[in-house]
Structure formats: structure tokens, C-alpha cells
Amino acid sequence: MIQANKGSVITGFHKTSLEIRYKELRYFMGVFNRMSGVSGLLAGFAASAMMLSVPRWENPWLVVAFLVFTGGAFGMNLLVILIATLCCLWAPGKALRGNDDQHLHDTIAILESKQQLAMRFFVFGLFSYFISSIMVTWLFFDHLGAVLATGLVTVFLFLLVRQSLVIRRAFITSQPFTSGYIRGNPCSSSHYFEN
Hints:
Low-confidence stretches: 189-195
Radius of gyration: 25 Å
Number of helices: 4
């Protein structure tokens, strides 16, 4: 009877542990889904900016800077979409394969590292998009309008960075994330329960 109770407790423990890990998997799928949606929107804006016909009399260095930042915004947002899509496609399949829970743990570790990489590309793509928007004002408006638009976009960029840092400080601590991964094998230490 004691062995049956011990087996039931260990089984319940492993089931609860896997449910927690499954919630982590769902969390990462949601994060990648949202990142790909916003990156798709920004990539669409950058693609439409790349199709603008630039006047021939403009400074060629300004045109090159505009194309570099617009292309950077487009490319980095496409990278975020690619990373997010591939993670959403292949991560659940990897988590389901295998005889033990190690595949689920490996999948969540991979998703965590890819989320950090995608977030870096997202931030660089967003920054490139803001710089590209400033370059558009210098290409298509007179100097007074360009200065006013540059000032306005710079203020909004500053507010965006400030608000991002405030939200990040509110939700992310300096301590590393705690995962649902349980270290050790409770079955191998079952001799503690056999008295």
C-alpha cells in the first residue's frame, strides 16, 4: 500500500511538473506570435518606404543612409518573423517527441535563447525604422518641415525607449527566470521512502 501511495505521489509530481513546463511552452508560443505580428506590420511599413521614388537632386549620402536604414528595418523585421514562425512550427513537435520529459525541457531552453535573439533583432529593426522615418522627412520636405518632423519623431523615440525601460523594470528583475524544470530524479532517491 505504501509503495502504491509513493508511486501515486511521484506520478502526480511529474504530471504537475510537465503541466508547468507545458504552460511555459504556451507562453513562448504566445510571445513569438505577438512578435511576428508587430514585426510584420513594421516590415510592411519599411517595404512601402523602400518603394518611394527619391528625387534625383537629393544628397546621395542621404539617399544611401535612407536605403540602409530602411533595408535594415525591413531585413531585421523579416528575421524576427522567420525566427518566430520556425519556432512556432517546430517547437511543439520537438516537445512531443521522445520517451521522457527531456525533449520538453530542451525545447523550452531553445525557445528562451531564440526569444532573446529575436528581441534583439526586433529592437534594432524598430530603431532602424525610426531612423528611416527621419530620413524620409529630410528627403521629401523642406528644411523647416524636416527639422520639425525630426524633433517630433525624436521625442516619440525617446518616449518609446523610456516607456519600454519602465515596463521592463516593472516586469523583469535582475534575478534569472525560474523555470519549471525539476532537477534530479525522485525515483532514484526512493530509498529514502522505503523505511
